[in-house]
Amino acid sequence: MAQKNYDELSQSILDNIGGKDNIKSLAHCITRLRFKLKDVSKANTEAIEALPGVIKVLDANGQYHVVVGNKVEEVYDSFVKVSGLHGGGEVAADDDDSNEKKTPAAILIDLISGIFAPMLGTFAAAGIMKGLLAAATQFFPEFATDGAYTLLYTVADGMFYFLPVVLAYNAAKKFRMSEFNAMAIAFALVYPTMVALTSGEVLGSVDLGFAGTFSWYATFFGIPIIMPASGYTSSVIPIVLMIAFAAWLEHKVKKVMPASVKMFFTPLVVVTVTVVLGYLFIGPVATLITNLLGLLFQTLFGLPVVGSILGCTVVGAFWMCLVIFGFHWSLVPIALVNLTTLGHDYILGAVIAHSFSLGAVLFAMYLKNKDQDFRGICLPAIISSFFFGVTEPAIYGVALPDKKAFVIASIGSAVGGLIIGITGAVVYISGGLGVFNWLSFLPPAGVEGASFIVPAVIASLVGAVVGFVLEYVTYKPEQKLAK
Question: What is the reported pTM?
């Protein structure tokens, strides 16, 4: 589709969504325009779904999603231009939705997706580089000592190391506070001097049994500064909790701070208080939560005989269902916690086959259905699923409307999860999607662990074969694909 047609599409979406005045905010993820509307009833969902280029419309978790597929960035840019929105698509007018009634699940999903979705592309790119470097050192071990490896590893690991800074920026937008104050807090959390404390002498420790051992390496006016052994680099939960507190504090301070000193005294108070409380209280509490979450999933996957198999199969089977409703974001922080605390993760490993199974199901439909309109929708979705692991076009454009195809794709994904569970395969990094995800099963240089790339490939291929065979045998092209 040419760029001028994106403008036409954007204008049509704008007209049918209730106009600019009905939009509180706009963002996008990998495949969807994500609107927050003042009055959802003003949106003509049926008309929007009928527009060429629109795959599906969803109204869920407090957001109005217009699924447009892989061209989402171009459509987003066009929509911002056509609508006249400012601030990266955010409407600066009275967009406070604090009076809206939302379920706790809707609030949580909106929060998690808002923090993690904006960084997924770059995060995945960094993961792909990590995977490529891991593959290179597997075949050429001497490359790990080369300057080229060191330089490229900064590309791969930089975003992971300073992850709290990225999360702070995104969380600040969600909690409506100064992004610079948030990043200042994150910088203090990963400041090299503080990180180096954990390599020094342990001044004291307390053993909480199943919740872990907590140690401190320095004190703040006699109060222990308790830190995890690796510090807070690459951490997730501590910074999110700290920014949530900082946002509340910033709003309070702004109300009482004199206008003449507000510009610099507000950041001074907010950053200082949050950093101190972060290290003394919020950080240790977050560490405790992290330990308990890790224990919970370790317990689930560590059940005698059936734990890993059952856990991986269930996650694989229902992963695409979670994607539909946005609930898959609830597992991402836990997976990142596993990667940073355990050095590996089984949740992301369990879903390796879902994009392959889904792509294979669509390929079976593509071979039997000669309708050119259907093929025009199907082929790009197949490529996106197989090679890049972006499944929304395939889910919303083909599999879900067919219903049976979606179920079969989920079965293939479950079989892949079963294989992962039987072999005990884990990922060592949060890497790319699709075929690039295989590299995540290679241990990076200097990290102890077995290579699970062979089970990952087998799980992917078996899941694809199961999906393809079941769909090819049962699919009847004369059945109309629902819009």
Answer: 0.67
